[in-house]
Amino acid sequence: TKMALQFKDSFWGKDFISCDGYEAIIQRLNDGRRTCKDTEELLKMRASAEEKYGKELVSIARKAGGLVEICTLRTSFDDMKTQMENVGNLHIQLSGLLKDEVKRMEEFRERQKEQRKKFEISMEKAQKMKVSLYKKTIESKKSYEQRCKEADEAEQTAERLGSAPTATPKQIEKVNKLLYFLLQDEGDYVSSSNIEQLDTLRQEWELTHIDACEMFQQQEVDRISVIRNALWVHCNHLSMQCVKDDECYESVRTTLESCDIITDNNHFVEGRKTSSTPPAPIEYQNYYDNDAADSNGSAGFIEGVKKRFTNIIENLLDFFTPYQTQTSEGVYASIPGLQVTQASSDEYKALYDYIAQGEDELSICVGDVVVVKEKGEDGWWMVERNGISGLVPGSYLVQE
């Protein structure tokens, strides 16, 4: 176990009025306060990023389409959107946790500021009194020493005058008075008294210094512990977020495992199939052929039609031949550019919901029965329901 060094044993001044140690501690506290603010700023920025990211995910999930897909792939796609929105909400919740941690850090920093302020005021007051009395003591000491020097000089002068044959009684009396005055001076007492007061004040200052050092060291212990724990908790939050994200994505992977290609294609075939055989080819039929029949769906006539007025009809055919255009198979070609639509009045049932996207479209729900008026080659059918007509995707309907 490491031995904890104490502030009170390591930050005394180098001389009597020096406060280098105290100033070093105060600088450390200021740096620690700056680190607290930097930690708060880090958490704030991360919270903002998490909130923005979460909202973007929710927006993407809600805007994603996939409404036209069917069966198991549709289920997987819908689950992907759901889980993406869940992940977004989880990141928004994480943002809230980080903001709460920032508030706790700010409250902690303010509490330390108030505690520190009291001890700083006490230390400044004690230091100021110590310096003031120290200067006063030094001045009284200098004055006292100066008096002593003058007294020594006066005594030496008196001795010289006493042994000198030329000295007058008046000179000797004057020197004796000066010596008496200097010896009666209270400078010695004043200097001694100031030193005693200074020593008492010094002891008080040392106690204040020790209390402040202990308090400041405890603040540093608390500050380092709080910041360390905040960063630790932040990492735990991020790790937990990764676990929650993976759980959401695992749900999507599980759904995708159930996505079957054959099942989806079979579902499409069973729900939208039209005919199991291709249409019969169109064959050329002579209008006057007795064997004409309506075998391929085209217009035909009953057997037994007699070829009467043969010459007249042949002449008519010869007359109209220049105006007829035939294909290589003998079938009349269609007019270029003409788009043919199939008209029908059959009833169809809606397989899926559809919300109209334009004024010319019609909204339908699953199970609605509509009457198809016209089938466009572009996949959009004109239908009628309850007297209201509009376009819907033909792939959403199945014949009753």
Describe this structure in words.
The protein folds into 2 domains: 7-263, Arfaptin homology (AH) domain/BAR domain (Substrate Binding Domain Of Dnak, Chain:A, Domain 2), CATH 1.20.1270.60; 342-400, SH3 Domains (SH3 type barrels, Roll), CATH 2.30.30.40. It is built from 6 helices and 6 strands, in the order ααααααββββββ. It is 62% helix and 7% strand. The protein is rod-shaped, with a radius of gyration of 54 Å. With 400 residues, the protein is of the alpha+beta class. Strands 1, 2, 3, 4, 5 and 6 form a 6-stranded antiparallel beta sheet that branches.
What's the SSE blueprint?
Layout: H1 20-63, H2 71-163, H3 169-183, H4 187-257, H5 261-272, H6 310-320, E1 342-343, E2 347-350, E3 369-375, E4 380-385, E5 388-393, E6 397-399
Antiparallel strand pairs: 1-3, 2-3, 2-6, 3-4, 4-5
Features:
400 residues; alpha+beta; Substrate Binding Domain Of Dnak, Chain:A, Domain 2; 6 helices
Measured as a percent range, the helix fraction is 55-70%
The assembly state of the depicted protein chains is single chain
Radius of gyration in whole Å, from Cα? 54 Å
What is the N-to-C order of secondary-structure elements (H for helix, E for strand)?
A: HHHHHHEEEEEE
CATH architectural name of the largest domain: Up-down Bundle
What is the CATH homology-level superfamily of the largest domain? Arfaptin homology (AH) domain/BAR domain
Span from first to last CA?
86 Å
Low-confidence stretches: 291-313, 319-344
Mean pLDDT over the residues: 82
Q: Specify the overall morphology.
A: rod-shaped
CATH topology of the largest domain: Substrate Binding Domain Of Dnak, Chain:A, Domain 2
CATH class of the largest domain: Mainly Alpha
Number of strands: 6
Bin the strand percentage: 5-15%
Alpha plus pi helix count: 6
Please give the largest β-sheet: 6 strands, antiparallel
Q: Classify the secondary structure makeup into a structural class.
A: alpha+beta
